[in-house]
Amino acid sequence: MGFLLSKSMDANLKKQQEFMLHTGRLQMERQIIMQDQMRQRQMAMQVAWSREFIKYFGTFFTVVSVGTIIGAYKKKKPGLMAPIVPLSFVLAYQMDSAYGTLIYRMRGEAESIMMSERDRLDLPHGTPTFDSIEKARRARSSLSSFLDK
Known about the structure:
Blueprint: H1 2-75, H2 84-99, H3 102-116, H4 130-140, H5 144-148
Helix pairs in contact: 1-2
C-alpha cells in the first residue's frame, strides 16, 4: 500500500516539477520579449528625438549661416563665417544620427567591443548577487533591525 502511495506521489511530484519548469520557461520568454520591446521603444524614441532636434537645429543653423554670410559680405570680414564650421559638424552628426547609418556603426562597434574587449564591460565588484543585493537592502531598511530579532 505504501509503495503505491509513494509511486503516485513521485508521479505527481514529477508532473509538478515539469509544470513549474514549463511555467518558468514561459515567464522567462515573456520577460525577454517585454525587455526587447522596451528596448525597441527606447531606440525609436531616441531616433524620433534626433529627427525632431534636426528640425529646430536645422532652422537655427540656416538662420545663423545666412546671418554670418551676409554680415561677412557687408563688413568684408570672412572670419565672421567661422561659427558655420563647428555648427556644420553638429548638424552633420545629428543628420547621421537621425537619418544616416550612425546607429548601425555604433551597433557594429558595440558588438566588436563585446567580442574582443570583454574586460571593459566588467562591473566594479563584479556582477551583483542575491546575497549582495539582500545585504544592501537590509542595510538601507529601517525595519531590518526589527525583522532580524
